[in-house]
Design brief:
Blueprint lengths: L5 E6 L8 H10 L3 E6 L9 H8 L18 H7 L2 E7 L1 H9 L5 H8 L4 E5 L3 H5 L1 H12 L3 E2 L3 E4 L5 E5 L3 H13 L7 E6 L4 E2 L5 E2 L6 H12 L3 E6 L12 E4 L3 H12 L4 E4 L6 E3 L18 E3 L3 H7 L6 E8 L3 H11 L4 E6 L11 E7 L4 E8 H19 L1
Helix pairs in contact: 1-2, 1-8, 3-5, 4-7, 9-13
Length: 400
């Protein structure tokens, strides 16, 4: 499963560190090369001798190897790895990772890493639920790191709740899925995101409440999967993801259509998550319309149906994914759109689901194809995006 992969395992000071002996064994059994780097306090919970025996490599935790001053090159360690996994990730380490702190070798390696990063938190439930920890985790997810959710169970404090480091088997599965997603590596992917604004006059427009969060999260996850991602975005305050092959900012549906049309033919996978306006004013005033006592009437005409055009022009081997935001008879409308637009998959948002849809940092979606349906329950949009990418990859390759 992981033959030839180089995994850098970072271990921090947590009682959960005892589980890393099993994790190293699982990585090795799967065929990976494993290099362990620990924080100094991690050695209070598991010995370097145990880890070096299992990994068949020396364990590093200090900047200097010996009294002769031989240096441990953190940059070389970081560049060696295909993947950096920090497990367990303590609250202290999460805080330093999110703020750029660097007071030990593991953090220096982390800050030097050019490879993807996964992290598996471990701490008591009150620490895990503290707003500062939640903020740090979301910040790291925003960096493009892969978050491995902790489990629920008995904690070292004697309490029962969320905060247990994910079991080694769960971490192995997350790592395996990550490398399996690399089948998207090098593939051309087109993503649309955000709203469109349809001008009424130089000041006013018709728009919607889309923030672009979901599309931008998908772009980040596809970059992590190695895809060559071009993001076409309507107006959004989201940070442009690192590692994109291209980015095009648009405002109107017509501009989005022209941008997507020029990129579509060469795209292996297209995901249209943008909330494109269905109508636009027939006439755009060249001057600001002044307020008056009489009723103002604005005639509207349809905007280009970008998704329909893509479905009609889809070539063999191209994959097309659409989004649907519905308020009633949701699945019926989504399945109709799946068929009429010639989509391979549709992602259904129900506006009635609490915490889902426009503007939220969380989402809950249903993935619908002609043969299957899969529900992703409420969680952060970055986590939803990660699962969508895994599902798309597995689904399309199985179908092929």
């Amino acid at each position: 499963m992981l033959t030839g992969k180089r995994i850098l395992l970072g271990i921090t000071g947590s009682i959960a560190a005892y589980k890393t002996a099993s994790l190293v064994r699982l990585f090795k059994k799967a065929g990976a090369e494993v290099q362990v780097v620990t924080t100094p306090s991690a050695r209070d919970f598991i010995t370097p001798l145990t880890l070096s025996t299992l990994s068949e490599r020396p364990v590093y935790s200090e900047f200097v190897k010996n009294k002769q001053g031989e240096w441990v090159n953190h940059v070389d360690l970081a560049l060696w790895a295909d993947l950096l996994v920090i497990a367990p990730a303590s609250a202290n380490t999460l805080s330093k990772m999110s703020s750029g702190g660097c007071d030990n070798l593991l953090l220096a390696v982390y800050l030097s890493a050019k490879c993807p990063v996964m992290f598996a938190p471990a701490m008591d439930l009150d620490m895990y639920k503290h707003p500062s920890t939640t903020e740090n985790i979301q910040k790291l997810i925003g960096f493009g790191h892969v978050f491995i959710s902790p489990g629920i169970g008995h904690l070292a404090s004697g309490l029962v709740g969320e905060g247990r480091m994910a079991e080694p088997e769960v971490i192995l599965e997350a790592v395996t899925q990550y490398f399996e997603r690399r089948s998207l590596a090098g593939r051309q992917v087109l993503i649309s995101a955000g709203p469109t604004y349809e001008a009424i006059d130089p000041v006013r427009f018709i728009g919607n409440r889309s923030s672009g969060k979901m599309g931008y999260a998908l772009a980040r996850q596809l970059v992590l999967a190695g895809a060559r991602v071009h993001l076409v975005s309507g107006p959004s305050h989201e940070k442009i993801p690192d590692g994109l092959a291209g980015f095009t900012a648009v405002e109107s549906a017509e501009e989005m259509f022209e941008a997507c049309k020029s990129l579509y033919a060469n795209s292996y996978l297209t995901i249209m998550s943008a909330a494109v306006a269905d109508y636009k004013p027939t006439v755009i005033s060249s001057q600001k319309i002044k307020k008056a006592d009489q009723v103002l009437e604005i005639k509207l005409e349809p905007t280009p149906d970008i998704l329909s055009w893509m479905g009609k022009n889809k070539k063999t081997g191209q994959l097309l994914v659409g989004f649907a935001l519905e308020t009633n008879d949701e699945e019926e409308h989504a399945r109709k759109k799946l068929k009429t637009k010639n989509l391979d998959l549709i992602v259904l948002n129900r506006l009635r689901d609490a915490g889902a849809g426009f503007g939220h940092d969380t989402n809950q979606v249903q993935l619908i194809s002609a043969e299957k349906s899969h529900l992703l329950t409420l969680r952060s949009k970055d986590e939803i995006a990660s699962e969508i990418v895994v599902y798309i990859d597995e689904f399309f390759h199985h179908e092929a």
